[in-house]
UniProtKB/TrEMBL annotation:
<feature type="transmembrane region" description="Helical">
    <location>
        <begin position="564"/>
        <end position="585"/>
    </location>
</feature>
<feature type="transmembrane region" description="Helical">
    <location>
        <begin position="170"/>
        <end position="197"/>
    </location>
</feature>
<feature type="transmembrane region" description="Helical">
    <location>
        <begin position="281"/>
        <end position="301"/>
    </location>
</feature>
<keyword id="KW-0472">Membrane</keyword>
<feature type="transmembrane region" description="Helical">
    <location>
        <begin position="606"/>
        <end position="632"/>
    </location>
</feature>
<keyword id="KW-1133">Transmembrane helix</keyword>
<comment type="similarity">
    <text>Belongs to the amino acid-polyamine-organocation (APC) superfamily. YAT (TC 2.A.3.10) family.</text>
</comment>
<dbReference type="GO" id="GO:0016020">
    <property type="term" value="C:membrane"/>
</dbReference>
<dbReference type="Pfam" id="PF00324">
    <property type="entry name" value="AA_permease"/>
</dbReference>
<feature type="transmembrane region" description="Helical">
    <location>
        <begin position="217"/>
        <end position="242"/>
    </location>
</feature>
<keyword id="KW-0812">Transmembrane</keyword>
<feature type="domain" description="Amino acid permease/ SLC12A">
    <location>
        <begin position="140"/>
        <end position="667"/>
    </location>
</feature>
<dbReference type="GO" id="GO:0015171">
    <property type="term" value="F:amino acid transmembrane transporter activity"/>
</dbReference>
<dbReference type="InterPro" id="IPR050524">
    <property type="entry name" value="APC_YAT"/>
</dbReference>
<feature type="transmembrane region" description="Helical">
    <location>
        <begin position="638"/>
        <end position="658"/>
    </location>
</feature>
<dbReference type="InterPro" id="IPR004841">
    <property type="entry name" value="AA-permease/SLC12A_dom"/>
</dbReference>
<protein>
    <submittedName>
        <fullName>Transcriptional regulator of multiple amino acid permease</fullName>
    </submittedName>
</protein>
Length: 709
């Protein structure tokens, strides 16, 4: 007599993965035995739906929606008869009982052109091609690194220093880094478990609301599409640092450099994604080396190298200030004053703890833009060879990137310059403390020794020439004039490299929106190399806005337009955390799937769900306080208001309109979809016997040895 817990096929006591394996095998055996004896197959019930892979993981642009049930069974039957995935030895790639012989699991799902490889050599038609999973772990790591490390850290961080001081800026980088880290590890866990190609928008639609995903997706696309043009403009304007080029005097030179930079970015994004990954790897590695060199130079400068004085913590020591001339040092600026020139009377601003807190809030909103794009690692996961292995590895390095390349960089540079230096960009005005023509006669600049180098580069329509970077200012103060010119050249390279990543993310975001039906269908068409060329072309068309920089007036208009959607990345962080929180509690209501404590759970992020709540609340605070200064007395500015809250307004409009038209609803936790994507990943990628949360000593040592590569 069968026991209470037994079942006909012995499935009841199996875990989720092995139950899925057994069910699929039974499904194929039933079709083999009975399909030839029936005039119709409609009476055969699927144990595993034959169209799970195609419908739930990849949308086959035109064909799948029109495929009949019998056609789907025929197509899947052809695949399973020639190559059965459950007969493959995943460890050594040997042939099992079936006829197939595959060297590695990537041949099944991670092939060059389609989610399922068949024995046929016939090329897929144009509408049947997909993104190619060819990115390695190191490519993911460097794409994320290269897409974020740019003008935000090396140029705009000066605004935070002038408003909050050296320690205040470091504190802002730490706080914002905690928010970003909490967000990324949360979203990574979701993507690793239900790896799908529709990215932030798709997971927001699945776990929150379809209207929510629509608004997030389009804002995310616009943010990076305009960001591409912004990086091109910034690259050209930073060339004005070199007066011999006479950039602004010759409009043809401006247009020529825009064409050169934009074409290089478009070509890089139009080639095989594997080559793109290597291009990003090399460019990001150059960035990494440069940052490390700059950190070392700043340390040497601080200790009196290059013939200068030993600074130590001079600029953080209030007692060493020149009080008679209002050159005040300290952990924070002496008061919260949006119009501070570096020599302003502290009584003109808000002092004390309240002033420090207000300065810190502004600094957090400024440095948050330096972190924007850290989530690129999750976007690129849709083209990773093995996302369940590659994504957690790349995500874990986000912590070290934040500590070393953001916090440490902000710390060492703030030790080497006066926070009120008039050469730095100001937060409220967007210009320097005094006109560049007055640099040589300004007492504050003379006091800190900043008259060694001839720096006459001015601000152009709100864009910096690079001379206003805190790193360049520190180098010029130490009389390293030639090296400061070299450093500015690297900043130009940084901007172009960031533009490369901007185009990649914007095109993949448009591709994912198309897969979901939230954008025209043709945007999901890929060529034989797995490049969504329509999406790339559409996203690249926004780069043509960079030609506006030939006119200063047009550049001002473009700058204002870009600022309106610039904070989209912060809203995306909020969406990521909200999606994970619902994912976390929804998974608790589905114990039949898997527990987060199960050894075979792909990636378990730490301190959950509290990490996600930290990211959610932190990003919400940044969004709401980003432009609070416009509400202060005498500081109202309509353009500044829309630059700060325009993204929030656009998001609300997109959400409400989509919800009104399609009548979408927020799903209950019990009805959340945890199967689409996950089951296909389990079937084609996941080694069910592997403990994903443990690492051997060899793997740990290899990870540390390859940290820089």
């Amino acid at each position: 007599m069968s026991s209470k817990n037994s079942s006909v096929f012995g499935l009841r006591n199996l875990d989720d993965f092995n139950r899925y394996v057994k069910s699929t095998e039974l499904n194929d055996l039933i079709y083999e035995k009975y399909s030839g004896n029936l005039s119709t197959q409609d009476n055969l019930l699927d144990i595993i739906k034959s169209k799970d892979l195609e419908q739930n993981f990849y949308i086959d642009n035109n064909d799948i929606a029109l495929t009949t049930n019998n056609d789907a069974r025929s197509r899947i039957g052809t695949i399973t008869n020639s190559r059965r995935w459950y007969n493959i030895d995943w460890k050594v790639g040997q042939k099992g009982n079936g006829e197939g012989n595959i060297a590695k699991s990537s041949d099944l799902y991670l092939g060059d052109e389609s989610p399922v490889s068949t024995s046929s050599e016939e090329a897929l038609p144009r509408t049947n091609r997909y993104l190619s999973r060819k990115l390695k772990v190191r490519n993911l790591q460097m794409i994320s690194f290269g897409g974020t490390l740019g003008v935000g850290l090396f140029l705009n961080s000066g605004k935070a220093i002038t408003i909050a001081g050296g320690f205040g800026t470091l504190l802002a980088f730490i706080i914002c880094g905690i928010i970003v880290l909490s967000t990324i590890i949360s979203f990574c866990e979701m993507v690793t478990f239900v790896s799908i190609v529709d990215g932030v928008s798709g997971l927001s639609s699945r776990f929150v609301d379809d209207a929510f995903g629509f608004a997030v997706g389009w804002l995310y696309f616009l943010s990076f599409a305009f960001g591409l043009a912004g990086e091109m403009v910034a690259s050209v304007i930073m060339l004005t640092y070199y007066p011999e080029l006479k950039i602004l005097e010759n409009k043809g030179s401006v247009a020529g450099f825009v064409v050169f930079f934009l074409l290089s970015v478009i070509i890089s994004n139009s080639i095989n994604v594997q080559i793109f990954g290597e291009v990003e790897y090399i460019s990001s590695f150059i960035k990494l080396i440069f940052v490390l060199v700059m950190i070392v130079i700043m340390i040497v400068m601080n200790r009196g190298g290059f013939g200068g004085e030993v600074l130590g913590f001079k600029y953080w020591d209030h007692s060493r200030s020149d009080f008679d001339n209002n050159i005040i040092f300290g952990l924070f600026r002496p008061s919260f004053n949006l119009q501070d020139t570096g020599m302003s009377d502290p009584s003109e601003g808000i002092g004390g703890s309240l002033g420090n807190f207000m300065s810190l809030m502004v600094a957090i909103s400024v440095v948050s833009f330096a972190y924007s794009g850290t989530e690129i690692v999750c976007i690129a996961a849709c083209e990773a060879k093995d996302p369940r292995k590659a994504l957690p590895s790349a995500t874990k390095r986000v912590f070290w990137r934040i500590v070393i390349f953001y916090c440490l960089s902000a710390f060492v540079v703030s030790l080497n310059l006066y926070a009120g230096d008039p050469r730095l960009l100001r937060y409220f005005t967007g210009s320097t403390g005094v006109a560049s023509a007055d640099f040589n006669t300004n007492y504050a600049i003379q006091y800190v020794g900043g008259t060694h180098c001839d720096s006459k580069s001015a601000i152009y329509a709100g864009y910096s020439s690079g001379a206003q970077s805190p790193w360049i200012v520190a180098l010029q103060t130490a009389n390293l004039c030639q090296f400061s010119s070299v450093a500015n050249g690297f900043l130009v390279f940084f901007a172009v490299s960031c533009g490369n990543a901007q185009l990649y993310v914007s095109s993949r975001t448009m591709y994912s929106l198309s897969l979901q039906g939230k954008a025209p269908k043709f945007f999901s068409i890929c060529n034989r190399h797995g490049i969504p060329y329509y999406s790339v072309a559409f996203a690249a068309s926004f780069g043509l806005l960079a030609f506006l920089c030939v006119s200063e007036e047009a550049t001002v208009v473009f700058s204002n337009l870009s600022n309106i959607i610039a904070s989209s990345g912060i809203i995306v962080w909020f969406a990521m955390c909200l999606s994970f929180i619902r994912f976390y509690y929804g998974l608790k209501k589905r114990p039949d799937i898997i527990s987060r404590d199960d050894p075979s759970y792909p990636y378990k992020s730490f301190f959950q769900p509290y990490s996600a709540f930290i990211g959610l609340i932190g990003s919400a605070i940044i969004i709401l306080t980003m432009g609070y200064t416009v509400f202060l007395n005498k500081y109202w500015d309509t353009m500044s208001f829309f630059a700060s809250y325009g993204t929030l307004i656009i998001f609300a409009v997109c959400y409400i309109v989509y919800k009104f038209i399609y009548g979408t609803r927020i799903r209950s936790l019990e009805t959340l979809d945890f199967d689409s994507g996950r089951r296909e990943m389990d079937r084609f990628i996941w080694d069910g016997n592997k403990d994903y949360n443990k690492r051997s000593l060899k793997e740990v040592l290899h990870k540390w040895v390859s940290f820089l590569a």
